[in-house]
Amino acid sequence: MIVMVGNGKGGVGKSRVAIHLAALAVTAGVDTVLLDTDVIQGSSASWSRIRNDEGITPPVPVMVLPANPLRELVNLSQKYDLVVVDIGAQNYKTMTECAAVSDLVLVPCGNDQQEMEATEIVFKHLDAIGPQHRNGKVPAHVVLTRVSTNERAKSTQELREVFESMGMPVLQTVLPMRSAWAATGKTGRALHELRGKDKSERATAEMQALFDEVQQLCNEG
Asked: What global pTM score does this model have?
């Protein structure tokens, strides 16, 4: 199973989503690897280094961008039950190549005009390569990230409606901007592994809900 996470805009939570999908899968006993293709920031690889240095278990295998990402991705998908791919911003070539063989594509986006425009561009790229996918269309969904912590926020509902009106499916799970996210990057832990003042039950439940929804979509596909 291959799940790709990407957007043309940076700072939308791509790596956070990818890291947590991989970490939750490993915790659930799924044989998983996280592929970091962001050669500029390498957020997933950086998180992994911190995690390894701190000796946090279970280990989450992370690989950086290989010479031929598409070939390596296909090979990894035959060795692991789940491959999570973290795509760097503006890397449309790698994004479309990986999307063509992915079982699910997630496009994180917050309530920001530039992020919304970047997300629309991503879906145009994915639509263009749709015929290359075995399903005849790339199974892509928007993930609303960094939105209001108010579950009934009008801005979040309007954002969902805008994407759905353009034929861009949106996951039911929403990931509001919470301080615990920053703690995961500093500690090498996932949300469900945080301790003390860093821990957030709400953030943990939201990420678990995302993982469960992704798992359901993959099973249906």
From this structure: 0.95
